[in-house]
Write a structure and sequence with these properties.
heterodimer, A: mainly alpha, Leucine-rich Repeat Variant, B: alpha/beta, Rossmann fold, 5-stranded parallel β-sheet, 5 helices
Chain lengths: 375, 125
């Protein structure tokens, strides 16, 4: 064997080298071919997207009908491109053009595309299907029970998408249940919850009362985390609906002074200057002065400083002066900012005696700059 | 009657396509650029009758374009009408746009019919 190898060493080496060269050549050809295929696919996709984009623009402008759009769509990839175009446009336009886009989504192949994804085991595909249902005009209500189930899953994208679909197509009880499930899902962001409430309001044709009632109902349950409760209070506050004013004031006056988290008192305090009346103002201010301006949470003390600047009652001045000594910069800042709202109060005249000049000058500088930036 | 020349400075493809299609259909002479730097250059060289200017652009923003034009001593910004187009509609941004010389501010999502009405009104003014 060794003799054979020695005798034919050169031949064996040449064979090995040739084999390696052949393998390398195959790999190179394979790579070049793959790259070529990718480029061709990309070019074709680009051309298709160009053609479909023009078509969609003509369609939403009312110059052609759905059939003419459908004539240039042949394979599943074409539908994916179409959906990309639709998604891109949907967020940028409104009115009749947006309605026309919704008509495109009713094409049978698109419906079938999403129905198959709804029944897949992949949560993300299910979520995409639910988002499609939320935009659909002719939604098949047989899907609704399953969609409602999905609002309770842990996967935030799916629960959110399903909730969106229920808010668009469900009855009031179903909408309420879907929203409740999102409020209980701590993995869902505040922005997502906000989007759902915005959609709820849009579907209610701008009828604030329905949204106010549903939020007040959630708050009365006392079932949610402090962060979620604060979000509900903020959403209710921003609606600025008269019926919710008394509710929020009563909530503020009744919650225990000691709280484990600052979210709820801070958010309530922010809205007290908006919702206070001459009858309850004194009681509200009293609570702010005695219970919350001494809170262990700086964010609550900060909210108090801001609120006192909006109430503008002389009785708050000593509290605000005392807050100039607060260990937190923003509490001191808003106390100073609120104090100078009072007639006759100049920043130069309220410097605490034992505060360092540097610290005071920094505070004054920030307050003056903040005042200049108000439009 | 010569066609009014409009320059569209917008990086979002489909939004640009839609606006171009509709404006060309109405008989306007429309040009389109996709970024702030090209937009600024085009405004200075071609001096269009109207600029539809997106705020959020690659390169420099719509605000920065207007700022540059305002500070350019060789360029009279008052000769150009500007409509700002943007997804940002905070009061401070609207104020800033008007302060820099914009005549209209169209927040996205927008209705095409309303956009066209505003555009025609600005062109007439």
């Amino acid at each position: 064997m060794i003799d054979y190898l020695q005798t034919h060493a050169i031949t064996i080496m040449m064979v090995v080298v040739l084999m390696l060269a052949a393998i390398s050549a195959m790999v190179l050809i394979g790579a070049l071919y793959s790259r070529w295929i990718l480029n061709v696919t990309k070019r074709n996709r680009g051309r298709k997207k160009e053609k479909l984009s023009e078509c969609v623009i003509q369609f939403i402008s009312g110059d052609i009908e759905v059939d003419e759009v459908q004539q240039i769509i042949h394979v599943e990839e074409d539908y994916r491109i179409l959906l990309e175009i639709i998604n891109d446009l949907s967020s940028k336009i409104d009115g009749p053009e947006k309605e026309r886009i919704a008509d495109l989504l009713e094409m049978e192949p698109i419906k079938n595309y999403y129905t198959s994804r709804f029944y897949s085991k992949n949560r993300l595909e299910q979520a995409k299907a639910c988002l499609y249902f939320a935009r659909q005009k002719s939604f098949h209500y047989s899907f609704l029970p399953k969609v409602l189930e999905y609002t309770a899953v842990d996967y935030p994208m799916l629960s959110y998408a399903a909730a969106m679909a229920v808010i668009v197509h469900g009855n009031e009880d179903q909408k309420r249940k879907a929203l409740k499930n999102q409020l209980l899902n701590e993995d869902l962001s505040d922005q997502a919850i906000n989007d759902l409430f915005v959609e709820y309001q849009n579907i209610s044709d701008g009828e604030l009362k329905e949204e106010v009632d549903i939020i007040m109902g959630f708050l009365k349950e006392n079932s949610y985390s402090p962060a979620r409760t604060a979000l509900l209070i903020k959403t209710l506050g921003e609606l600025n609906y008269h019926e919710s004013a008394e509710f929020l004031v009563q909530k503020f006056l009744s919650i225990p002074a000691e709280q484990e988290y600052p979210d709820v008192p801070r958010t309530l305090i922010n809205y007290m200057p908006v919702f206070a009346t001459s009858e309850n103002e004194e009681e509200i201010l009293n609570r702010i002065h005695t219970d919350y301006s001494v809170s262990t949470f700086s964010s609550v003390r900060e909210a108090c400083a801001k609120a006192m600047g909006m109430f503008m009652k002389d009785v708050s001045k000593p509290i605000l002066m005392w807050m100039l000594y607060d260990k937190d910069f923003y509490v001191r800042f808003y106390a100073a900012k609120s104090l100078v709202q009072f007639p006759g109060v100049e920043l130069s005249s309220i410097k605490p005696e034992d505060m360092e000049d540097k610290m005071w000058n920094e505070l004054v500088g920030e307050v003056e700059m903040a005042n200049e930036q108000i439009y | 009657m010569s066609k009014e020349r409009i320059l569209l400075v917008e990086d979002e493809e489909m939004t640009a396509r839609l606006i171009l299609y509709r404006l060309k259909g109405l008989g306007y002479d429309v040009e389109h650029v996709k970024d702030g730097v090209s937009g600024l250059e085009k405004i200075k060289t071609t001096k269009p009758d109207l600029v539809v200017l997106d705020v959020m652009l690659p390169g420099i923003s719509g605000f920065e374009i207007l700022q540059d034009l305002e500070e350019d001593e060789d360029f009279d910004l008052s000769l150009i009408k500007v409509i700002m187009l943007t997804s940002k509609s905070r009061a401070e941004d609207v104020s800033r746009g008007f302060g820099l010389g914009a005549m209209e501010y169209v927040p996205k999502p927008f209705k095409m019919d309303e956009f066209i009405l505003r555009l025609k009104r600005v062109l007439k003014s």
